[in-house]
Amino acid sequence: MNKHIKLSPLLGGFAAIAVLALLLVIYTLTRPVPMAGTKNISIDVVYENGVKEHYQITTEAHFLLEAISSIPELKVSGTSSDEFGLMVTTINGTRADYQKDHAYWALLLNGEPCSYGVSQQPIKDKEAYTFQYTPANEEAQKP
Fold it and tell me: Counting Cβ atoms within 10 Å, is residue 18 exposed (0-12), middle (13-18) or buried (19+)?
């Protein structure tokens, strides 16, 4: 005898709500949290040829893109989306577009890759950021 248990659609709805609630809790615990107050940060730009530019600023900004926009000598641009914010492709006229150049601007925090993009990266006092022109490896460049 083969018995099948029919689950109520209401039970499926409750399960979906529980999963969404769990995802909301995870996001709340792991989202970027900016530091309030004045912060002193440094921003370096390392170009393909190894030339390095250094910027030292004091800011009240909460996120890195806000701080960058307060530096007139540092021109950062790219494509923007609501989901991911600014995808940096050009810094001070130097383009690194993966689709076209097989290179990208890596964003580092204290020498380590950032967990967030430039728009969502919270800043804290005495942090050091680096935009590093980074060519893709040889395998990725092969057609």
Answer: exposed
